[in-house]
Amino acid sequence: MARLIRPEILWIAGSLLWGAICALMSAIGLWIVYQAARGQLHLTRPKAIVILIVLGFAGVILSACFYFVGKRNLELEAREWESEARLRGILEAAPDAMILANRWGQVVVANAQTERMFGYERSELIGMGIEQLMPERFRERHVAQRGRYYAHPHHRTMGMGLDLSGLRKDGTEFPVEVSLSPLERPEGMLVIASIRDITEQLRAMEEIAQRTAELRKSQEVSELKDHFLSSLSHEMKTPLSLIFGYAELLEEKYPQEELLDGILDGSRRLNEHITNMLDYSALVSGTLSLYKTEVNLAEVIESVHASFEEGLCSKRIRFSSEVDPETPAIQADARRIGQVIGELLENAVKFTPECGALGVRVQPEPGMVVIEVWDTGPGIPESEQRRIWEAFTQLDVGNAFRKGGLGLGLTLVKSLSELHGGRVGLASKVGEGSRFCVRLPIEPGTSSEPRIR
Predict the structure, then answer these.
(1) Bridge partners (DSSP) listed for residue 196
(2) What is the pTM of this model?
């Protein structure tokens, strides 16, 4: 700072001193004239006295001019210094490496981030050729590019698709992005280079690309699996129908044959599994259609309960059904709503121990109907409650896992409810049973897409 303002200070001090001398000269001349006018002095050289007075006044005027010129220059230098200090402060605060280089490619200013990024001390960077901060294979090309840039300076932003690399003091290379901006200075045009290390950015992009490829592959596998399940289910449906039909004919001919009961029971169970797989496949592909009519939920529950009567009796499970008389009919697919309630009841029967209890409760809410299916089974751990809605998921709770199943029941419950514009919920504590809740709109609205993955 002293180097910049010392000449102006000397200029101002000199002009003030010269003005004082000239003022003194004028004062002496005027005093002599005054004394001569009073008759106390006799002027032998009046011209010299006049010249002394005139030169004194001229010197004062000139010294005043020099003073104001020096003061103006001092203020300009101070503002320039303040501007440079502000620029240096901005460069130091920048998160990227910031370098000011002249037209010869020499570093004039470098911030602390440049030291950390390239491994050089500040004293080493000042005066260094900018090409030393890049691998040797880029240097010759960069010299030509630098010349063209100075011929036509312009702002160039980062991310211009250029493959650039930086070179640290220890010889290691790293990928960078660089933005350039011209800066006019009294000593000539400089270029501000903002340099960003994009090593982590490229690594993140590679990881995203890898994850995307894995996700795409996973989706392809999932689609292949869904296609396989659909094809397999369709192919199994026809021979199973033949087996089931022949078994029923044999049962009519040999009603006392207990082995036929096993064949029929196994055929029914396999038919249910195949039907579930076909429904799941249709939901995945978006081809499952709803045939909505006016549905009385009390009648649907009574019909579904009848199909579970034998299982409830064999385990001596108490069943209760509560339908609020104020519950209105809903616009829905009766078969699919029966399927939703049936899957929930099947789970409840499976998990409820002997002499336990389960039931269905239906009540209205504003614009909705709430169907609750509860049981006194072992309950579902909180950590597993989100996973139960996933396809082909079974929980090993009590002896339910050993009773088989595909793990599609609750997936279908959730998807069919959402296809009707509704939603599902679960409240369960270990040792206290479970309560599944299905909320369905009374009037048909915009159906949400089933989300079964």
Answers:
(1) 177
(2) 0.49
